[in-house]
Design brief:
95 residues, alpha+beta, 2 helices
Length: 95
């Protein structure tokens, strides 16, 4: 199987742990080179976050386990990349 290089996830998470704590937990996983978490909506008890993880040989189940162990839920997998190279999507604006 080809190795996972990028995961972009839509995650619903509680306010605690903070995104600082969650990003550090995800960054500590084997094969992870970088993690970015962006909050795009905040409610009284939860945050909606876009979680982007890049690395080599990412293990989706390990990522999901860390998120769920900390009270989060993955709503959707919005992007996945695998293989030797990361291919960037080019989106052209439509008139």
């Amino acid at each position: 199987m080809g190795n996972l290089r990028r995961l972009v996830l839509d995650v619903l998470k509680p306010l605690e742990p903070s995104i600082v704590e969650l990003v550090q937990l995800l960054a500590d996983l084997e094969g992870v080179d970088g993690v970015n978490i962006s909050i795009y909506e905040i409610d009284r008890r939860v945050e909606n976050a876009k979680v982007t993880i890049e690395g080599h040989n990412l293990i989706y189940d390990a990522v999901a386990h860390v998120i769920e162990e900390n009270g989060g839920a993955i709503h959707s997998v919005d992007e996945v990349a695998a293989g030797k190279l990361l291919i960037e999507d080019v989106i052209t604006p439509q008139d």
